[in-house]
Design a protein that fits this description.
The chain is α+β, with helices and mostly antiparallel strands and 707 residues long. The protein contains 20 helices and 26 strands. The N and C termini lie far apart (79 Å).
Amino acid sequence: MAKFNRYLITAALPYANGPVHIGHLAGCYIPADIYVRYLRAKKADVKFVCGTDEHGVPITIKAMKENVTPQDVVDRYHKIIGDSFAAMGISFDIFSRTSNPVHHKTAADFFLKMYNDGLFEEKESEQFYDPKANMFLADRYIIGTCPHCGNDKAYGDQCEKCGNSLSPDELINPHSALSDAALVKKTTKHWYMPLQNYEPWLKEWLVEGHKDWKNNVYGQCKSWLDTGLQSRAMTRDSNWGIKVPLPDTEGKVLYVWFDAPIGYISATKELTENWADYWCKDDTKLVHFIGKDNIVFHCIIFPSMLKAHGGFVLPENVPANEFLNLEGEKISTSRNWAVWVNEYIADFPDQQDVLRYVLTATAPETKDNDFTWKDFQDRNNSELVANLGNFVNRTMVLMHKLCGGKVPVLHADLVNDDDRQMISEFAAAKERVEAALEAYKFREALSEVMALSTKGNQYMQRNEPWILAKAIERLNKGEVLEKYTTDDLQMLQQRIDICLHICLQLTANLAILINPFLPFTAKKMMHMMKVVDRMLDWENAGSAKLLSVGYTLREPELLFKKIEDEAIQAQLAKLEASKVANAAAAPAPVEAEKPAAPAKPEIQYDDFAKLDLRVGTILQAEKVEKADKLLKLLVDIGSEQRTVVSGIAMHFKPEEIVGKQVTLVANLAPRKMRGIESQGMILMAEDNGKLIFVNPSEAVKAGSGVS
């Protein structure tokens, strides 16, 4: 394995056209921060760089919509984003911005070096132009039908439904995402990087040399290379960005994906005059933390740029994560379907570590994952409060109550196998956590820390120092006990001392191991233990001698607090409000309204009286396997619970209808559907193809009759 003398860690540059949300945190910023905090604890020479990406069409579009300048937009969001990261404990060494003069010069010089070395192709081509917006469009602002899967909302650079990379010319019926206008083509001149020339090198360096990369990253890169690379324009038509540093190029700027990754270099230049040590020496380990939508740029295009320019180190790893969804739906900034970090900080003050914990525990490391507020609440209450928080609090409380607030003695002659086994877990846990962190398996690493806390709780429960203390109290009162006598008084106190000594040493170990993940929590633990920051050095983990005997510790404080249902309901209400607003803003359907169905033949009152209609409450709902239209429902009708199969799966998600009251035909003869016996029928109204439950306007008791 290569030995590295310094580390350069980058996190993707967020676009300065909006705040950051939990998908961004889970995708790259929390994983990067965990890794950097771990490296710092190991006393590694490490620099952690990031900044806002402030060029490109999204910025100009935002400015156009708000009737302000692009500079106004990036200034506002650079501060919002930077403040959000700082509040969440993302510990960048520098958080720069690509509008800084040093970046403009660095990127322009990089382009000129490649240009002077003859590494670009100069081409005139016809590109898509929006005649209404009066501008050439970047690929992302061209929408059409994907030729691979038929998705009619594919972008000009990628179809987000099937994942295929595209070019605007491949789209069927391309149109403008800005004005919806049909596009025309106009001739323009640009400078292209012939990526196909770097294919042989990329196959050797990446495909053969980095088989240890995450499967999702390696697989996407190999797929790109297998299908063949093409020349890609490194300049764009725009008045916002880094001007192309060549004569007669008015109105042309560097392509944002040429300019942005160079931002890592310029940020390092701002950070230290020794920047070249981190970018140009072979004993530097460069790691890019990104989301999966940036894989091709960081694994193929930017490395090719570095190779072409010469003199720079190449990424040793790019541990990209997949996407995080929210409550079962894709996070969408345009639909306000997101948990914004600045709003979370305001709604949950001093609970940054809860979000860091949940986003790490559910991180989309190998596949897309889902964030739900219910899971957030459950993990806080059952894992942080009831496990880690409970162990540390019990240890500190009992130490003050039973040992005078000081670290008790470990009486060597009374240490038993259970004690030794618990102590051995310190070093074993350190090894497991370290191995997982080195492999970028942050979920696994966090799980190992929590498992150690669980073992601490179990150890304390087995030894029951509070029971031993009660026995001492009763013996001192002269009571006769079946298990102990007054001769055991010293031994009982010594066993209490041993248990709490080990639990306190474990608490110190937990502070070290949890620090990369939950830095605010580690700081609280350090405060309670009255120890200095250097105790968090990684070399101290695994030791059973971190706290000195007789050392006085501070009074305990709760590490976490229970999150109540009201706080979660408030967040769900926010999301529901976004749904309502989106529905209200959606254009009305243009299809003609269907005429009402003709009345059925007349029946007598006695015919209707045969129906037993009851109000029921849906307790459970799930999809029926291999039946796209069917849901299996469990309905409470007061006297009993009925299984009902209903053909409403195309209209409702199972989780949306649990708790809803419905009208059930309760005396309909049972009927088997897909092997499930359906014991009734749910009444629905149909309005132009939309199904609506027939239910009482106010909640009533399950089983109430309908007449």
